[in-house]
Amino acid sequence: MDKIQSDCPYPGCFFCVMKEANPSKRRASVLKFFRELPSQDDDGQVLPISGLWNTAMAHPNDPEFINLGIFECMSALIWKGLKNRRWLSHDQNIYIPYYAAHIIGSYTMNMEEFAERAVRAGVIPPLVELLRGRLTWVEQRVAVRALGHLATYPSTFPAVADHGEVLELAIQLASSSLEIVYSHFYQFVDRRIGYHCDLLTRGMGGVEMESRKAEEWASQLQCWSLQLINCFAFKSEFLHDICKADFLVKLPGMWGGLVNENSPAGVGLLRTICQSKLGRGHVANIPGVVEALCNIARSSDDWQYMAVDCLLWLVQDSNTCHKVIDRVASTLIDLADISMLGDYKKLGDTIVTVLQECMQQYANSRNSICTHTKEQIDELLSSKQSLKLEKNMPKEDLHIKQAAALVVKLEGNSLFSSGNIAGAAAKYSEALALCPMKSKKERVVLYSNRAQCYLLLQQPLAAISDATRALCLHSPLNRHAKSLWRRAQAYDMLGLAKESLLDAILFINECSQSNDPDLSLKQNKVPDYAERLVKKQMRAAWLFREAALKHGGIHCEGEASDAFGQEADDSEWETASESDAENDATGEADDETEWKNDGHQENLYEKS
């Protein structure tokens, strides 16, 4: 390429080309640059490629470079890196395949027209080679990202699907990505490849920053693999390959983690699978998947509505309803007081309708519903009927019911304070039976109080059910602080670290915004008992935990903090003093609304 500016020491400098004032000359020079770059072996080629990477990230919808052959250039550079290892190891060329694949992904993520141009330019074969792992996991990450974008569009999906190994490779990568990143990068600090470290931190951080970014990238590698699989899941001909038992059972546990909360990950793929009759049949038949969906549906996860969709579709399908109804009914009943969630405007009404139709469907069917499930559904239908009747009830009668419920609740508070936990739980049940259905605030308190009793009685499933009902009744949804804390402890009892972690974090968030003097954070300090639970669950829900256990990074529970990368005392929050925590854990009862604080909560946490 001709030299544009006489004072530039590098003939054909791309940055000088971009400074050309004449548009036609500039386009001609860029076109020539893209055509000639793959055949050149000059030093410093990574500089213009990194510049193009920045441009693609900043202006992914700009057609200028698309029209001038950037896809053909990037495809050729990836092939060159795969076939010419001597060139790849020279200078800084090792970075080029990564940048090239990233550029392809950036320019194809929004525009179907650009994706079509990319396919015609032949980008898919070299991307598939990267996906196979011909280089490293770093290149796999950007390759699966680019292929995921290409598979999103109807016009370019067939070109991706024509490479039959893409789906199988994506499934393998989704299943093993965390272990790959842990064993190939995270585990041994002194063996980390230099250019990986540079790409992760852009040269701006040390070992700690590298480790944090590695966790983020590992999560992206898994989530982008799931997104690629999701494109195939919309096509029934691929569902048999996707719905293998050993893969489906892992999906509920695949989540973006705290570093990648914007991805629906495994539950998003399950939702797509459950949209088809064939997919629902597979999900209903695999032990553990439906139960995991129930946990997600009850949780404060951002993708709660996706799990609810799955459960409703399974119950509405006559081929799967009898297989799942006894497993999902209690979860759906707990959620029946939610008004808006996701695309649902009246989710509670939808749940009632679906369960009612289910009861009618199996009234005279060979596939019967168990007695306990029938009783639960009948109780739900009766409560909804009571709500309708209350609309025509005189206000005086409603006030009498409220007053009676309050008296019984106070009796429950008294029993709780005296240590009669079972008696208190019974009184709260009696108060719930008396309390008008429309008195939502009062019912939130009663459910939450009874959940605390169940915690102390070591009945975590009952505590989760009541805490969930309180959170569904509360406005805004899933934001009642004390119910979040109680459910976090119940999840902890069952070993459900992710669900416990999400509730504990939301509890702290609610405390930070609360005007309640019993809940608000003192001097912006997180209560010690809450911080301990969050730290415990962050270790237990750590993305690399299973990989670390497998590869010897965690030898026993007591050494989990070493693998996680922080000792227990190294908190991001300022910790409340022990005296503050003790004051926050008193068990007094409040006659007006609710106990001033969660009685025995520290002792309970220690037990659990």
From TrEMBL:
<feature type="region of interest" description="Disordered">
    <location>
        <begin position="560"/>
        <end position="608"/>
    </location>
</feature>
<dbReference type="InterPro" id="IPR011990">
    <property type="entry name" value="TPR-like_helical_dom_sf"/>
</dbReference>
<feature type="compositionally biased region" description="Acidic residues">
    <location>
        <begin position="567"/>
        <end position="593"/>
    </location>
</feature>
<dbReference type="InterPro" id="IPR016024">
    <property type="entry name" value="ARM-type_fold"/>
</dbReference>
<dbReference type="InterPro" id="IPR058868">
    <property type="entry name" value="ARM_7"/>
</dbReference>
<dbReference type="Pfam" id="PF26524">
    <property type="entry name" value="ARM_7"/>
</dbReference>
<protein>
    <recommendedName>
        <fullName>ARM repeat N-terminal plant domain-containing protein</fullName>
    </recommendedName>
</protein>
<feature type="compositionally biased region" description="Basic and acidic residues">
    <location>
        <begin position="594"/>
        <end position="608"/>
    </location>
</feature>
<dbReference type="InterPro" id="IPR011989">
    <property type="entry name" value="ARM-like"/>
</dbReference>
<feature type="domain" description="ARM repeat N-terminal plant">
    <location>
        <begin position="6"/>
        <end position="244"/>
    </location>
</feature>
